[in-house]
Amino acid sequence: MPEHGDPILLPPSEISDATRRAEALIPTPYGTFRMVAYAGDAEDYTPHLALVHPEMDPNSEVIVRLHSECITGDLFGSMRCDCGEQLDRSLRMVQAGKGVVIYLRQEGRGIGIINKLKAYQLQDQGFDTIEANIHLGLEVDGRHYGVAQGILRDLGIRKIQLLTNNPLKVDSFDEGPIEVVRRLPIIVPPVQESEAYLKTKLVGMGHWLK
Ligand SMILES: Nc1nc2c(ncn2[C@@H]2O[C@H](COP(=O)(O)OP(=O)(O)OP(=O)(O)O)[C@@H](O)[C@H]2O)c(=O)[nH]1
User: Domain GTP cyclohydrolase II: where (predicted)?
Assistant: First the structure.
């Protein structure tokens, strides 16, 4: 296992995307966060965001949520997925545990909002979330988490308790200097509109949803 301080073996673009560009305190109904924006380009309109508890101790086993952007769920409360409620719970848990939410701009598992809406059209015709991406000629999951490692390292964090049900997010830390000491599940019970999607996550994508 690499030691903290070892260089992270990341593609150059992901290292540069973890460049700190600006920060400010943001009071929210959950409590106050220090929001830090990270981007390769200082003028980037969609930087990755870290919402850091003002008393986060980087030497502790920090509670961390890596949350991929979901405009439909996070912003508008779409019930097709569990994203909005996962973000809500994460913000609560991170406030309570003095941790960090990293909001990664990987809308639609990396395919973007236009393609995600096309995928939803296909899902309404009977495709599942995996088949819809494939039908569109796109990756089922095009996300990379290297930039999240760069952001955590910028925040001085070495050990994390990761809030996720997704094995790929946990595995993404295998090669880096940051240790996942614990996985914390974040399971949202299905509603009628999200039932098929969550079943595909369980059966087709191997998420720990039981
Ligand atoms: N392509 C596609 N993306 C979707 C669909 N539903 C949700 N998403 C996206 O899936 C991603 C979910 O991100 P997260 O909640 O961070 O991660 P996760 O893979 O669900 O894993 P957890 O950490 O267990 O929540 C977001 O980028 C959503 O926009 C869908 O039907 N199709």
Answer: 21-185
Domain-located, residue 114: no
ipTM: 0.98
Per-residue pLDDT tens over the stretch 88-144: 999 999 999 999 999 999 999 999 999 999 999 999 999 999 999 999 999 999 999
Give pLDDT, residue 1: 42
Range(s) of the domain holding residue 167: 12-106+143-202
- Within-domain flag for 188: yes
- Assess contact for 206 and 183: CB atoms under 8 A: no
Query: What residues are in contact with ligand 1 under a 6 Å CB criterion?
Result: 67-70, 81, 83, 86, 106-109, 111, 116, 119, 129, 133, 164-166, 169, 197, 207
What pLDDT is attached to residue 198?
96
Q: Is residue 51 part of a domain?
A: yes
**Residue 4: inside a domain:** no
Reported pTM: 0.94
What's the CATH number where 186 sits? 3.40.50.10990
The tokens describing 95, both together, are 């406030």
Q: Where are the alpha helices (DSSP H) in the chain?
A: 12-17, 83-97, 107-110, 112-124, 129-135, 146-154, 167-171, 195-203
Catalytic, 141? Answer yes
